[in-house]
Amino acid sequence: MPLIAESGLATALAAGGTFVSGIVLIASVVGGATYAAKSASTGIISMVCGYVGASVATEPGPTPGTASDAKRIEPGLSPAIQAEIRGGIETAAALGVPRTAIIDDIAAALANEMPEADPARIRKQAEQAVTSVAAELCTEPALDGLPTDAVARAGRGVVAVQAALAMRGVPYSWGGGGPNGPGYGIGRGARTKGFDCSGLTEYAWARAGVRIGTTTYEQWRAGVRVPRSQIQPGDLIFYETDPSIPGPDHVGIAIDATRMVHAPFTGSTVRIDTWAGAPSRERALVGIIRPT
């Protein structure tokens, strides 16, 4: 069941968008690359800040919109659910959906997941989640600040980056995740719901309407090679960390010429790291692919 119900977004999705794991498949709503470039260049993150709103908590606490408030998500929400809320909030802001509609949808979805819970508590949890996640997104480094022409050229890559950024904080799970979002992995990832490196990239590019395959080996062949001097948001950065096994064994998604978002290793979470200039990563770098 999607985390965010379709009811509150029915008007915005009249063009035919569908929810997948609580996130709108943006490319199907307004036409992929054109919409991605427009929404990124106007600053999706800045629009999200409107969801912080007035305080929704009656008890004393930090002022909404501050970094400390961003960490006040109720403990009952798993990292995967929080990530889905993040993605839904970013998409809803880009589509102009009112804050109250997002709260209604999250409350309805949480009520379905916890049918025995008190409705008032569910509503408060949904309000706090929206305020907290929006406050965090307001201070999140992402695509804002990149040159507009670079964002426009990236097209669907911008959608992929935003989808991956929305998963920050989701645990690494060996073999986990895929086009529909976080999932349980295999082996040492069997008890963890999350993403491995290629599961995250597959998910992100699926949100942009492009299927790139499941493994790093498939994804290495899913596009065209580009020189690092021409890297754009959404390009896939490949590494070979184990020379005894031919082919790339790690992949991240470029945010810009120095940063990437990726799922690094067991025990970590999806996060932003510097890829350019880091000696260990420079040694392991095998190439950059732009999915087609």
TrEMBL record:
Output the Pfam families linked to this UniProt entry. NLPC_P60 (PF00877)
User: Which residues are listed as membrane-spanning?
Assistant: 12-37
- Top-rank lineage group of the source organism: Bacteria
- Domain (NlpC/P60): give its ranges: 152-292
PROSITE patterns according to UniProt: NLPC_P60
**Which UniProt keyword terms apply here?**
Hydrolase, Membrane, Protease, Thiol protease, Transmembrane, Transmembrane helix
User: Could you say which protein family the record assigns here?
Assistant: Belongs to the peptidase C40 family.
Name of the protein this chain belongs to: C40 family peptidase
Q: Which organism is it from?
A: Microtetraspora malaysiensis
